Structure formats: structure tokens, C-alpha cells
Amino acid sequence: MNVHELASKYEDYLISTRRYLHMHPELSLQEENTSKLIQKELGDMGIPFEVVGHRNVVGVIDTGKPGKRLAIRADIDALPIQEEIDSEFKSVVPNVMHACGHDCHTATLLAAAKCLMEIKDQLKGGKIYLCFQVAEEISGPGPEEIIAYLKKQGGVDEVIGNHMTPALPANNAAMKAGPSNAGNCQWRITVHGRGGHGSRPDLAIDPLRPAALILNAVAAIPSNRHAAFNPLVVNPCMIHGGTAYNIVPDEAYIEGNIRYFHAEELEEVLKLMDETAKGIASAFGATAECVKIAGCPPVENNADVAARVKKVMEAQGVKVFVSPMPSMGSDDFGTYTQAFPACYFGFGASSDRPDASHNLHNSKLFYDEKGLLPITEFFVNYALDLLNE
After folding, report:
1. What is the mean pLDDT of the chain?
2. In the chain, N or C terminus with fewer CB closer than 10 Å?
3. Same domain, 154 and 88
């Protein structure tokens, strides 16, 4: 039996698992039932596993012989979005949705685990670590916890990870060596004023007016204060302040993200944002500061691992699009690329539904399930290629 036939045996399992996960999404650091389901599935397959840190699950397929060590990562958390596209497996959790594809990531890796256990005796040696990671959407502690676990086990030779790509059709993939995805920094600017009555702003210090100016000023930093040759995004995505129409609030705050490719540029931009906020706030008699909340480094794909990814994809019959430019989208897989030789790539599964969105983090995102089997098949082919090298 070839790998395609083997993976096809588990297509029903793959789709039903994905649909269950899609119907029952859980937010970052709340993935209790998802983690338990993964543990049960691995246990039923006879795969030993450990729960690592905040409900990450790492299963181990051990050939019992020396050889290469491969880690495959799948993230498992969902987003705070109300799903607005109908299907028989629509999310049953209000205001929570798998609007990025992490349900697909989890299901394709579980199906690959079934395949790999069936052909375990065909592996010449080594180990495969099946890494199911929490909290990718908030750049949480998952990568550091799994990496620490892997290093404790002696490390791995390679790490691979997939992201669903709604703009590409099934059996198509996108990848590139070198810089692949931008780093992400989540930030908050807090403006401190002095509360008072809405009729006497002269007796208060209004934080809202400087906050509004600060929002526009920091968003303009990439065009006004940064070299145009280096991609950079500063995007304020939230502004909050006030509780009533006639009360001047004590504080207002802005939150957003920076997308970047060079760590030194991130630190410089954060410094500029802090200086800008302080200067504008001061002009209104207020104070302000900018702080980093969380983040993840850029994804830097290893050239040798990327070459193997491309080779295995093409041998499988996948149409590979080699991206000429990195994506400004971020993923904490960048933490893995800093720790081990690794490659991050995207498999397509665009839907032809007229009401479907092809944008990630959209309430109408919908994937063509025909795009799932090639991913499972690829994971199996990649493991065979590396461990039997």
C-alpha cells in the first residue's frame, strides 16, 4: 500500500475529527477539552504522550532504533469570533470560532499519527514527536514549553509545521527558504489623565484627545520614521476609554501590533512609540507610556529543511508555489526556527462557496475539506524521507 492509499483509509477519521473540533472551539489557554481529546486519540492509537506546560500534548512514535528525530507541530486554539457561515459543523460555542484553521492542523496531524503507527516497522530508525501546541493566537507560552521538553529529550534534527492557506486551492502549497513570516509584538499605550465632569474639561485632564492623536501618530511611524526598504507594520487595533457621555475618564489606552523582521528595528520602533506617546500626552497635561505585552520572533526557514519540504511536496504531486516575498502575517513557529532547523509552509484548501471568505480571522472563513488529505499524506511522506534517509 502506498502512502496515498494509506492516508485515504483515514480520510473519514480526518474529516470527522476536524468537524468535531470545529464545532467545539476553545480560546487560547482554555483548550481543556481539545487537549483531552488529543490525549484520548493518541492513547487509543497506542502512542505514548506527555502533557507539557499549559495543556500542550506531545506524542512520541519511537522506532526503538537510533536515527533522525522529527517534530511536527500543530496549534490547537481558536479565536474570539462569532461564526457567520452556515454548515453542518458550525461552531456551537458563542463568539468562538476556528477562523484560522487550527482545527485542520490538529486533525491532519492526528490522522498522520494513525498512518505512521501503521507503517512504523518501515521506518529505519529515529523518533517522531507529535506536538500539539496551545495559545498560538496570543503568542502564549506553548512554543517555549514544547521546545524545553524536546531539548530535555535530546533535541530534534528538524521541525516542520503547516498553516492552512485559504487563498490557494487544494493540493497546492506555498513555502520559501529564509525569512518566511514577520515577527509580532503586541503593545499597549496607556494615557493617564484626571477624571472629571463632562461640563468642565478645564478642571480635568482628558486622556481621550491625546489618545486619539497618539493612535494616528504611531500608525504613521513606518512611513515617516522608518526606512521604506524594510517591511514594517504598526497597527493600532483597539482604543478604549470612558464609561459615560458626561464623565471625563482617568485613563484611555490603545493596543495593537507591530510586524517586523529585525529585532533591532522592533526595539527602535517601540522607543519611538513611547517617545511619541509621552510627547503628545504632555502637550495635554497628561502622561503616557508604551509597553510590550507579548510577541513572537520572525519565522526563518532553514534552507536545507525547506529544500526537503519542497522535494517531498513535489514528489507527492503537490503544486508548490515558492513565495518571492515573506508574509507580514506572524506565527509563533518562529520560536521553533530559532531553536532547531525548521520550516513553516502553507497548504491550500480554498472553498468555491460564494459566501465563503478567503481571509484568515474572518467570520466567514470556510475550507474545502479536499485540501486536508494532502497535508496528512505529506506529513507521512516527510517522516519517511527523513527517518529513512
Report:
1. 96
2. N
3. yes
Say yes or no: 46 and 144 in one domain. yes
Whole-model pTM: value is 0.93
Q: Answer yes or no: do 187 and 144 share one domain.
A: no
Q: How far apart are CA 280 and CA 246, in angstroms?
A: 24
- What DSSP character marks residue 241? E
Spans in the chain with pLDDT lower than 70: 1
Cα–Cα distance measured from residue 330 to residue 181, given in angstroms and rounded to the nearest whole number:
5
pLDDT at 230: 86
* Domain finish residue from 296, 321, 339: 296
The pLDDT of residue 227 is 83
Among residues 267, 296, 325, which one ends one of the domains? Answer: 296
DSSP symbol at 318: P
Task: Report in angstroms the alpha-carbon separations of 54 from 50, 75, 162, 365.
Answer: 12, 13, 22, 28
Query: pLDDT digits over 41-57, tens only?
Result: 999 999 999 999 999 99
Q: Is 196 exposed, middle or buried (0-12, 13-18, 19+ CB in 10 A)?
A: middle
Same domain, 133 and 159: yes
Give one DSSP letter per residue of 111-173, joined into a string. HHHHHHHHTGGG--S-EEEEEEE--GGGT-SHHHHHHHHHHHTT--SEEEEEEEETTS-TTEE
